[in-house]
Specification:
CATH superfamily: NagB/RpiA/CoA transferase-like
Shape: elongated
Radius of gyration: 21 Å
CATH class: Alpha Beta
Number of strands: 12
Number of domains: 1
Largest sheet: 6 strands, parallel
Order of helices and strands: HHHEHEEEEEEEHEEEE
Distance between the termini: 69 Å
CATH topology: Rossmann fold
Strand order of the largest sheet: 1-12-7-4-2-3
Helix content: 10-25%
CATH architecture: 3-Layer(aba) Sandwich
Structural class: alpha/beta
Amino acid sequence: MTDARANILKKLKALKNEPYTRPAPVLPEFVQQSDSRTQLLKRKLEAVQSSVDIVHSIGQTGQSIVKFLKAHHCSMDVGVITGTEVELLSLDQGLQFFPCENFAECHTVVTRASFGIAETGTVVLPSSLQQPTLANFLPDNCIVLLNEADILPYIEDALLAVQKSDAGMPRALNLISGPSKTADIEQTLVYGAHGPIQLHVIILADAAGE
């Protein structure tokens, strides 16, 4: 063994016995200086062609869904993921909810995000038996409900919050920052290549959850 290699191995063995301290993350100043995580998340999502509504009541949530569907000339029949709590929403203007069991046949699905990330304009959707990953990718339109209180500054905060949640870290964690798009073919931007064509996020202000 050469002297150089022996020295390297000696240093590695010495480091092995030292306690490991995780370095502090480098946090972007623009998040720290932002007046509102909610508004920052909204701006980030809209910058990548997502639509965002901030609502203050359950009734406004239903109105936001209707407005989105009419804007995209979609049917008022909306698939629902288990546990989305849409039974409280208004069924005015022909809005109808049904349990979505075959996601390939559901044109529009309403689901719920566990957290939002202001830094990147991202909604966090952990997978589970009640909320499978396919629900976030097969339907043409994905409507995501997000509590304002669950909007966190950075991705590190969101990952830690998921890990500490009652369900713990899931097998799959979907971080969605806009509708699916690609420009692989002749550099032409196409939406819906490998996921929803439209992403609509409804942020439930603190008063809406009371």
